[in-house]
Amino acid sequence: MKTVKAEEQPFLTDVQELRSRARASIQDGAVTPAYKGDVHQAIRILQSVLATEIVCVLRYTMNAVAAAGISSDSVKEEFDEHAKEEQGHMRLVAERINQLGGTPNFNPEGLASRSASQYVQGANLVEMIKENLVAERIACEHYRELIRFFGDSDPTTRVMMERILVNEEEHANDMHDLLVAHEGRPMLPAN
Ligand SMILES: [Fe+2]
Ligand SMILES: [Fe+2]
Fold it and tell me: Counting runs of H as helices and runs of E as strands, what totals does the chain give?
């Protein structure tokens, strides 16, 4: 009996300590004391990624609508698909900001200046594809840097950015293929 009791005591203490620690850290959400990064800096960076993704959603959505007007169904479908995927990225980043204890900034005011990529309205289909290719390349370059930045200090955010980067590289590739297929061909009736 005595040996059992001796074994139980530290176990009970551990459980109680774990419970009180868990209660004390509830307000910190997913950020445990093991988080090695600078949470405030991580949130600031992710707000800029969020703005970049929102601008991508807006640009692709506008392009999908405009491309439909100039009767190019296959390109419209591509733009639509990208708009949906950018929306997925936007959501992932917003959720991560929330997990880190921040409030995702969806304020349209100042959105363009928070974003790493620009909102440029192409005059015709080829221009739209070119602008998207530029934006995707900027995003890829920026996200590669961020993956190195988060490194081992915040593996959860790093893995999320790696998943997004895979998708952005596909987007850049898709835009490049479309450009090769459409370059030099008049796309608007006015041309
Ligand atoms: Fe994206
Ligand atoms: Fe993209």
Answer: 6, 0
Please state, in angstroms and rounded to a whole number, the distance separating the CA atoms of residues 52 and 93. Answer: 10
13-56 pLDDT, tens digit each: 455 665 566 566 555 666 777 788 789 999 999 999 999 999 99
Q: How far apart are CA 123 and CA 139, in angstroms?
A: 22
d(CA 4, CA 11): 11
Paired tokens of 10: 């530290």
Q: What is the CA radius of gyration of the chain?
A: 23
For residue 168, give the H/E element and its range: helix 155-182
**Residue (of 99, 137, 118) closest to 52 by Cα position:** 118
Distance CA 9, CA 11 (A): 5
CA 124 / ligand 1 centre spacing (Å): 23
CA of 168 to the centre of ligand 2 (A): 4
Query: For residue 109, how far is its CA from the centre of ligand 2 (angstroms)?
Result: 22
Contacts of 31 (CB under 8 A, 6+ apart): 39, 99, 100, 101
Spatial distance between the Cα atoms of 77 and 6, rounded to a whole number of angstroms:
68
Residue type, 40: H
